[in-house]
């Protein structure tokens, strides 16, 4: 995968900030009001992610797969919107089988050239990842007591992690975090992102009037770590398929997947922690 162009950090950051100023209200406003607006936004973004993932893994032959996978995702989200959480989870498995059956008969000439052992496996895995992300975000927001606060805390922590990692990594450089996966990421950026997430998480705890802000800082740092692992995961997938960006939707970021890769991993982790503990993450404090 070719390295990014040698644009100045300031110009890249300016484009990123401009893109964020456009994107943020489109996410935060429906997130504030909740259903049904937020569900519709998540569904639309989920479909975009499906198309980017299918394009990433499928090359020129991805469109039929993307249509089928999008329909499967919308079926899962419709089941969840009808307050059928268990059927929604079951629908993920059924839809994955549907997608696999379609992909199993789809030929691909360049599969050997790209050294991809199982294209159907990649596509089904991506579908499961995207569906799990959409459900996780919706479940976090659906909490009657802490849903809105939890989602805004998650957004703030992940965005702080991304910003801190970029600024600190660009400023100080140093040893590479995972040079074979993402040659631009550094350990200084990793710790910078985690530290800024902790600061933002602690500030959010103070604003929300939560007790034990130290635990909020700790969980914010953990969310940052998971977020950065999600970022590395996407970089690894793009390297496997020799693709620079997942798309061109967002100036300064590439595709939507390039922008929300960390949020996807963090949302799944936070939602899983809440489900396993039986309480919203913020209720721990």
Could you characterize the architecture of this molecule?
The chain contains nine helices and two strands. The protein is mostly helical and 285 residues long. The chain folds into two domains: 29-142, no CATH class; 147-285, no CATH class. It has a two-stranded antiparallel sheet with strand order 1-2. The radius of gyration is 19 Å and the shape is globular. The chain starts with 8 loop residues before the first helix and ends in an 8-residue tail after the last helix. Mean pLDDT is 80; it is low at 1-6 and 105-118.
Keywords:
285 residues; two-stranded antiparallel sheet; 2 strands
Q: Determine the mean pLDDT.
A: 80
> The biggest beta sheet, please?
2 strands, antiparallel
- DSSP helical segment count: 9
Strand order of the largest sheet: 1-2
Structural category: mainly alpha
Could you say how many structural domains there are in total? Answer: 2
By DSSP, the count of extended strands is: 2
Write the layout of secondary structure elements.
Blueprint lengths: L8 H25 L3 H22 L4 H19 L3 H19 L15 H24 L4 H26 L3 E3 L3 E5 H22 L4 H28 L15 H22 L8
Antiparallel strand pairs: 1-2
Helix pairs in contact: 1-2, 1-6, 2-3, 2-5, 3-4, 3-5, 4-5, 5-6, 5-9, 6-7, 6-8, 6-9, 7-8, 8-9
Task: Write a compact overview of the structure shown.
The chain has 285 residues and is an all-alpha fold. α1 packs antiparallel against α6, α5 packs across α9 and α6 packs across α8.
């Amino acid at each position: 995968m070719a390295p990014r162009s040698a644009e100045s950090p300031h110009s890249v950051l300016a484009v990123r900030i401009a893109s964020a100023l456009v994107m943020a209200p489109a996410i935060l406003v429906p997130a504030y009001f909740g259903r049904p607006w937020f569900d519709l936004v998540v569904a639309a973004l989920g479909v975009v992610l499906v198309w980017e993932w299918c394009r990433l893994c499928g090359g020129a032959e991805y469109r039929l797969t993307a249509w089928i996978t999008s329909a499967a995702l919308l079926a899962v989200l419709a089941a969840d919107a009808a307050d059928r959480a268990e059927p929604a989870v079951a629908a993920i498995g059924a839809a994955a089988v549907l997608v696999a059956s379609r992909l199993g008969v789809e030929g691909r000439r360049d599969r050997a050239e790209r050294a991809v052992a199982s294209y159907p496996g990649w596509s089904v895995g991506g579908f499961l990842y995207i569906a799990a992300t959409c459900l996780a975000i919706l479940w976090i927001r659906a909490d009657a007591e802490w849903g809105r606060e939890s989602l805004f805390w998650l957004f703030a922590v992940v965005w702080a992690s991304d910003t801190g990692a970029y600024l600190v990594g660009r400023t100080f450089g140093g040893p590479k975090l995972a040079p074979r996966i993402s040659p631009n990421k550094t350990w200084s950026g990793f710790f910078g992102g985690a530290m800024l997430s902790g600061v933002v998480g602690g500030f959010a705890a103070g604003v929300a009037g939560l007790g034990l802000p130290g635990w909020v800082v700790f969980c914010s740092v953990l969310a940052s770590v998971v977020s950065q692992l999600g970022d590395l995961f996407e970089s690894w997938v793009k390297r496997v398929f020799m693709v620079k960006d997942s798309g061109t939707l967002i100036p300064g970021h590439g595709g939507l997947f390039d922008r929300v890769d960390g949020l996807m991993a963090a949302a799944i982790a936070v939602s899983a922690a809440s489900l396993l503990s039986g309480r919203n993450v913020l209720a721990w404090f």
